[in-house]
Structure formats: structure tokens, C-alpha cells
Amino acid sequence: MTAPLYSRILLKLSGEALMGDGQYGVDREVVQRMAREIKDVSDTGVQVAIVIGGGNIFRGMAKAAEGMDRATADYMGMLATVMNALAVQDALEHLGLPTRVLSALHIEQVAEPYIRRRAIRHLEKGRVVIFGAGTGNPFFTTDTAASLRAVEINAEVVLKGTKVDGVYTDDPVTHPEAMRYRELSYSQVLEQNLQVMDATAITLCRDNDMPIIVFSINKSGALMRVMLGEEEGTSVRREIA
């Protein structure tokens, strides 16, 4: 088997990817399938860190959050990401994969507090590390948390697993004629306002030369194909000559 291109990755999963065809919540079968794909990558010796969004849970509380103080709503979203992290941890450990959840909010009963050196040590010991609660600060997205953690742990790439298999010229659901980009520069993403990650996350990756690959986590084997350098998804990296 071809060796993976990367030895340490940061996998960003959207909360929406966990809910399958439901309107909110966690689809157990979807999480189990994702866990198997993550295990396949981990079994090759790749060190895997994960950041998960919380949209699948927070979406069910959207009406309650209307008119709420922004900081309060953001903290609720952070708690939703911890719930998702525990769901993914449980699925991975059912497959025999040692896992640690590190939270930016202190919830010692269910997760270790985030400490950079501890996270790196867990990775070096072959444990999958799941980062919960975003950055621990309101007004920052989990995309920004993914970029920040990737830089902090010296990951080689951010892999963003979504429901769509890359970045398109338009919404492929409503515009079937939309074309998928194979590669983009950070500047193109920012200038064209492409919905890859938010501007803060893209800028952080650009300033630290952290490549991003956007792919569909719902496509069977896509994660491994990305790891092997096969054509999958859309890559975002430094300026293209």
C-alpha cells in the first residue's frame, strides 16, 4: 500500500455531517461509518486530531437562541461540540482506538482540559485527539478553532470533511452546472468569498502556510484517498504560480 502523504493531520468535521439525513442530532450509523474511516487512517500510523462543529445540535435550539446575547449563544454552541466529541470518541473506542477529548472549556468530568503539550503527547502515543469547545472564546467559529489547533500541534494539513466533495463555483445542489475547483490559493478564497472556511480561519492558515483540503466525508474511502494524494476534493494552499 502507498504510504500516506501526511504523518499528522487535523480533521475538521462539520456538525451537520454527523446528523445524516436528519434535521438535527446525531445519526449513530453515520458516526460509526466515519469512525471506521478514521480508524483506517490511524492504523497506517498517521496521527489524527479532530475538531467538530456543533451545528447539528445547535440547529435544534435555533429558535430558542433568537434574540439571545451572542456570547451566550456561542457558549451554548461550544457545549454542543463537546457532545459531538463524546459521540465520536465513543464510536472510535468501540473500534478499539484509544481516544482523548480535550476541551477548551473546563468540564473535567467528561473531558481533559486543553493543554498544547498534552495534546501533542497523546498524538505521539497513537491516540486520536478530539478537540471540543472550539477555541473556548465566543465570536470564533470551529473553523477558526481547527486552523488554530492545527498550527498549535504542528499538523501538516487541515482536512475539512463536509457534505460536499469540494469547493464549487456555485452551490452544486441548486446549480447542477457548477464546476468543482481542483485547487485554489488562499487569496482566491478570500477575494471571491468562497465558502471554504471563514476569513479568520483562512488567514490563519495562509499566515502559517497550512494547506487545506476540502472533501466529502460522506463518500466512502474519500478520507483515505486524500491521505494517499489521489484526486479528491479541493486543495487550498499558497499562491498558485
UniProtKB/TrEMBL annotation:
Similarity comment: family membership? Belongs to the UMP kinase family.
Entry-linked SUPFAM superfamilies: Carbamate kinase-like
Specify the pathway. Answer: Pyrimidine metabolism; CTP biosynthesis via de novo pathway; UDP from UMP (UMPK route): step 1/1
Binding residues for ATP? K12, L13, S14, G15, G55, R59, T162, Y168, D171
Where in the cell is the protein located? Cytoplasm
Write out the GO cellular component annotations.
cytoplasm
Q: Which organism is it from?
A: Acidithiobacillus ferrivorans
Which residues are noted in the entry as UMP-binding? G54, D74, T135, G136, N137, P138, F139, F140, T141, T142
Q: Which UniProt keywords apply?
A: ATP-binding, Cytoplasm, Kinase, Nucleotide-binding, Pyrimidine biosynthesis, Transferase
Activity-regulation annotation: Inhibited by UTP.
Q: What is its EC number?
A: 2.7.4.22
Query: Where's the Aspartate/glutamate/uridylate kinase domain?
Result: 8-216
Protein name per its UniProtKB record: Uridylate kinase
Q: Which GO terms describe its biological process?
A: 'de novo' CTP biosynthetic process; UDP biosynthetic process
Q: Which Gene3D superfamilies match?
A: Acetylglutamate kinase-like
Q: What is the lineage of its organism?
A: Bacteria, Pseudomonadati, Pseudomonadota, Acidithiobacillia, Acidithiobacillales
Which GO molecular function terms does the record list?
ATP binding; UMP kinase activity
Broad EC category? transferase
- Main subcellular location: cytoplasm
